[in-house]
Amino acid sequence: MRLAPGTGRDVDLGRVDLFDLDLYTSGNPHAVWDVMRAKAPLHHQVLPDGREFWSVTRYDDVCRVLGDHREFTSERGTVVTHLGEDDVAAGRLMTSTDPPRHTEVRRAIGSRLTARAVARWEGPIREAIVRFLQPALDGGTFDLAERALLLPALVTGPVLGIPERDWEELVQLTAMVTAPSDPHFQHGSEAATLAISHHELVTYVTEWVRRRRRTGGEDGSLLDHLMSVHAGNAPMTDEEIALNGYSVLLGANVTTPHTISGTVHTLIERPEQFEKAQADLSLVPNLVEEGLRWTSPACNFMRYAVQDTRIGGGTIPAGGAAVAWIGSANRDEDQFPDPHGFDITRSGAKRQIAFGFGPHFCIGAPLARLTLRVLFEELLQRFGAIDLAGEPQHLRSYFIAGMTHLPVVAQKRKTS
Fold first, then answer.
1. Are 196 and 176 in contact (CB under 8 A)?
2. What is the percent of the chain with per-residue pLDDT over 90, rounded to a whole number?
């Protein structure tokens, strides 16, 4: 989707279709969300097949939907691509489980992904990122978006315990889950793409666990750690290990690549921001936060109302699907002055909720932040300038905001 603002003067909320894939591929949902925040902070839509959902677009309402499991449950599904189909993994898959069970599983897994725990991986991550950037320094066209899809695997593959030979296939499968309508990843219908990718990913982790049980031993990886996790008073079952390993794989491959390509594209369009960051690398952590706010790669999450619930000036009925638009919340003018301006010195950029909010705040956020910080440190030190070498191509998805192609040409930074 286009990340810059557009005019909302011609937006007719009565005819808006938030599931229109063209809106995200070639249109500009920010113009729609601006009008929704102002005029319809609770918006109801019925799809042609009869499925319906209620959208919240203001920052405070989005945080409420994502943050209060007593009002809005995760146990029927959390992603809009599954709207209308209850999640068969509810209660076992961490992302589709409410506290207290969710808290038990999250605490056990999250102990390996705290900021302190991931700090020891900075050296290997930096080495991987230097290798990733090296081809761009040759002066030819470098498709940043396409190549960035593989970067999380370069970083998290060793952390998870996944061999390099499997990285490319797993990246493709996770892209199929998150963007099943994009022609780069689609296999048959959207439903078929989702079914194939879900089955293949769960099967991969299941077989990984079986091999580990046969061979014994430990490698210190995160998947290995999952096999020893106790939630409550019992170890996780192999099915729970497989489902949560699948969830970790998805999370690792969603936010980081699209934040990179979207932020770099924005820096190309705003060279004064690029120069400002280059002159003061201490601004990089805030650049990362502003990039996350600006790109909001997971642009929505879904919950279901437990009972009739007043919010946004209206009511979501019991059992109604509530879609919380993170991409809109991160441009809420009540939270972020000049929300459609990109400013790496923005005060309060860290209030962005690109990683979600509440109990389901992204468990891999510390690793993602570390990866993004190191990448922009290395990029700013190595590249003197970056220019577009062709038209960006946007992901065809109403769930993930990102790019499939961003051809660029980089110039080496001159050393004094």
1. yes
2. 63
CA–CA distances in Å: residue 108 to residues 67, 221, 363: 20, 14, 11
Q: CA of 219: how far to CAs of 118, 190, 225, 227, in Å?
A: 16, 37, 9, 12
Quote the tokens at residue 357: 């909010």
**Is residue 108 classed as helix, strand or coil in its secondary structure?**
helix
Domains of the chain with CATH codes: 21-412 (1.10.630.10)
By DSSP bridging, strand 72-73 and strand 300-305 are antiparallel
Tokens for 40? Answer: 């319809």
Model confidence pLDDT, tens digit, residues 338-378: 999 999 999 999 999 999 999 999 999 999 999 999 999 99
Q: pLDDT, tens digit, for every residue of 34-58?
A: 999 999 999 999 999 999 999 999 9
DSSP-based helix, strand, coil % in the chain, nearest 5:
50, 15, 40
Tell whether the model's pLDDT for residue 4 goes beyond 80: no
User: For all residues of the chain together, what is the average pLDDT?
Assistant: 91
Return the half-sphere exposure (C-beta side, CA atoms, 13 A cut-off) of residue 128: 22
Q: Are 255 and 382 in contact (CB under 8 A)?
A: no
The sign of the dihedral angle between the CA atoms of 356, 361, 363, 369 is: positive
Determine the Cα–Cα distance for residues 394 and 146; give it in Å rounded to an integer. Answer: 11
Distance between CA atoms of 128 and 126, rounded to whole angstroms?
A: 5
pTM over 0.90: yes
Q: Residue 134 has what DSSP assignment? A: G
- At position 67, the amino acid (one-letter code) is G
User: Helix or strand or coil: residue 156?
Assistant: helix
Query: Which residues partner with 311 through β-bridges?
Result: 314
